[in-house]
Amino acid sequence: MSGYKHVVSGYDRKEAEVRRMLDAPRPSVPPELAVRAAERGMRLLRRRRALRRVGWVLLTAAVVAFCVWAAVTEPWAAPPEGTTPPLRHW
Amino acid sequence: MRERQAARERRRAREFEAFVGGAGGRLLRAALLLTGEPADAAEAAERLLTRALARTYAAWDRLGGEDPYDHTRRELAAAFARTARRYRHARGGVLERLTPQERLVLVLRLHEGIAEEQAAACLGLSVERVRVICTRSVAAMRSRRAAS
């Protein structure tokens, strides 16, 4: 590397210095950590799946209830006349 | 259907185990720098990492090409930022003089080597803010070194 002129700004040099301070051998990961994380992740997945299922069931129930109500009350039908027509030609 | 799901779960478990085996040490080191614990008493760091890894496991099938390491790092940063108040008083480690936020920025920028823009997006700060915090932390670290 002799003769190679490396130009770094002052700030980059300072950053590199701190980066070296952060360098350390990596700690060993306890083997049960991965197992615990996987179990917890599985629980999270199951909970999300169950929540989604409950959401779908609720939505379906709401749609069915609305359809039944609409079929029974027929809210689009014209309301019956409030007054009877006058009696003629009797 | 059930069989296919079981096969997918087995494959996910296998891939996840291989991922933790490869990247776990580096991630635990980052977590240790964040919590400011000595390397031989890493309970909080391990707890943070377990939580982040669990969320990565849950998202494994939906990662869609995203690097699981990046996902876990983002979860780790978010989990730490949410509970930063607990780590105000570091009990050791090189970053013990810094505030939790300074530690977070320094770890993302210098230990993980991610770009300012990416770090800013990850932390929900502006790029200028990240730059200011990083400069301040670097200065604090160097003065600490000069003092010791």
UniProtKB/TrEMBL annotation, chain A:
Does the keyword Transmembrane belong to this entry?
yes
Q: Which residues cross the membrane?
A: 50-72
Q: Tell me the keywords, alphabetical order.
A: Membrane, Transmembrane, Transmembrane helix
User: Carries keyword Transmembrane helix?
Assistant: yes
Can you name this protein? Answer: Ferric-dicitrate binding protein FerR (Iron transport regulator)
Give the source species: Streptomyces olivoverticillatus
- What lineage does UniProt assign to this protein's organism? Bacteria, Bacillati, Actinomycetota, Actinomycetes, Kitasatosporales
From TrEMBL, chain B:
Keyword vocabulary terms for this entry: DNA-directed RNA polymerase, Transcription
GO terms classed as biological process: DNA-templated transcription initiation
Q: Does the keyword Transcription apply?
A: yes
- Native organism is Streptomyces olivoverticillatus
GO molecular-function terms, A-Z: DNA-binding transcription factor activity
What is the name of this protein?
A: DNA-directed RNA polymerase specialized sigma24 family protein
**Residue spans crossing the bilayer:** none
Q: GO cellular component annotations, sorted alphabetically?
A: DNA-directed RNA polymerase complex
Q: Does the keyword Magnesium apply?
A: no
